[in-house]
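Most newcomers find our protein records easier to grasp once they have seen one. To make this concrete, we reproduce a full record directly below:

…
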Amino acid sequence: MSAQANLVVPDAAATPVNHTFKPLGAAGGVAKWIDQTQNIVQGMPRIAVNFREPLGKDVATRAFKHEVLFTMPVLEVAASGSVTGYNPPSKEAYRLVGRASYSIPERAALQERKDFVKMFAYFLQYNTGWPIYDQVIDLNPPF
């Protein structure tokens, strides 16, 4: 079993800034990380990774299940002050959510697993011209 360590992820700014996600711990097959650069907890991006062992008796359909969840809440911009001098607490305006699910057959060879992860990650990369870029960044349909 791998130990939880910090995850460093760059953003897409003109000059990328690295965001360090610190481990929150693991329980029930779910490991969690949080980016604490935001000073309000509600606005802190989070990563959760779920892992489940194969279930069932049919060797042909037994598979490891993995799920990665990335959430990035965006807070409303509150007024800088009021007549009373009281600033209302920040509220979440909306949340960006990314989810990837993997089903890796128990019979898959090591090289097949490596190829799958590499090719899937490459597909999701931030590259112009790739379907995921056009759909998510430019909000274009996949056809």
